[in-house]
Design goal:
By secondary structure, this protein is an alpha/beta fold. It has nine helices and seven strands; from the N terminus they run H-H-H-E-H-E-H-E-E-H-E-H-E-H-H-E. Strand 2, helix 5 and strand 3 form a beta-alpha-beta unit.
Amino acid sequence: MQYDPIKRSLGNVFNKTPFLRKLFYRLLDLLLLRAWHVHKELRSWIRRASKDASILDAGAGFGQYTYWLSRRNPDWKILSVDVKEEQVEDCNNFFKKIGSDNVRFEVGDLTKFVNENSYDLVVCVDVMEHIEEDVQVFRNFHASLKKGGMVLISTPSDQGGSDVHGDDDTSFIEEHVRDGYNIGDIEQKLRSAGFSKIEARYQYGSPGKIAWRLSMKYPILMLGKSKLYFIILPFYYLLTYPFAFILNYFDVRGKHSSGTGLIVKAWK
């Protein structure tokens, strides 16, 4: 399924006013299990972060994690990079409207983007599954981090992370260049890029797999068929979200021997 047209449709709906954009971010934070996991790791990083930290949001998309971080400390300097010019322009306009002076968006290709020894944190969510030259990107992250800096990556695993469970399956999201990472594979690639300390864990365990279908897969399939489903979605979530919320809670709290997603942290 082509996911980008659906994202553009959602952007058009929620981008009419800053209030709707903020509501959109809040909905993403509630619905996306990956956001729950990423926020958990970011809160842990924040407890040790300096007051003048510098952050790179690598592949920022709608800017949801940039927004979340920017509200935590207005003194942090956040550079958010995305390959899509229209996305960058849109985000710069929004953050200017809400007066976030500590945030800047730029067009950038992560296979080429390097700012040496500049960042205390690099956030990379739902990006690496779209990039063929992943080791080069990891090298660029390593070069761009300050000594002791951390990269946080969220990406599908090879345990069905793109809804691929067999050799005959195709990725649910057609823009993915790989179906997911093996933990050992991504750790080895990060080491080859220069990282020495690496921690990786599964997300989207048994509870998360069900929550993802309820809160994301089925709504995306509906919207892929017709935009008229926008009218039905509020009623759909009214019925299903309480169950998805409980499942998300247990997925974030639990430890999983396998899962369809990975959370990876690596330090320079």
